[in-house]
Amino acid sequence: MKKILLSLGLAWMVLLSVEARPKDNWSRGEIKLATGERMKGELLYAPEVEVVSIKLDDGRHRAYGSRQVESFSFWDARKQQTRYFVKSHLPHGGREIVFENIADGALKIQRFLKPYSRKRLLPFTSVITDEIPETAQEHGRYQYYVQEGEHLMTIEHFLRRRFSTSTKRWQKELEEYRYYNELDNGIASWLKVLLYYNVLEAEHNPKTYESRPNVDASFILMGNLN
Length: 226
Known about the structure:
The protein is α+β, with helices and mostly antiparallel strands and about 230 residues long. Strands 4-3-2-1-5-6-7-8-9-10 form a 10-stranded antiparallel β-sheet. It is about 35% helix and about 30% strand. It is elongated. The chain folds into 2 domains: about 160 residues, no CATH class; about 60 residues, no CATH class.
């Protein structure tokens, strides 16, 4: 009986989460299930409950929790870019969680919505939590991770323990980038620095990263990556 009530409660939470979002937030995308099955359609992601909904081309509507999904992606029309999500484990044998991949290259950068932020969003207000964060407050809702080789760690741990040695080759360029863009020590600023480092590495080793998305380094140096 308890399992039935819990299932009904989760279904009700998912329904409210989806209904709280504007109807035009559905985006074209693809889901890969844990079974290996792939589906394409209109996607809507509710990160506070880790549920992705899909409207199939034949009109059917389905919703999948994190245990059922291996990965998914969708086109963000507002930011004009494809966003990628994948299920993985937290470091040191932690639980499975849905990460958003925000950078690939010498450093892979991922994020997920912090648990306390999920609880605050469960009343399903009009706040849209699947948008790309820009302000310091919005970045604060997320925990960021950096993967270097086989090592996955929080961004704070990486900056404290590995940043200086890992990026030594580009120390001068990164310092200039921070100076010209007036960057501080906030998460948003450090994300820009790490993204720029990936670009420098990709330009230095084009064959290594030729299959991965690339951005022109001069654009990042002169632009403001919000």
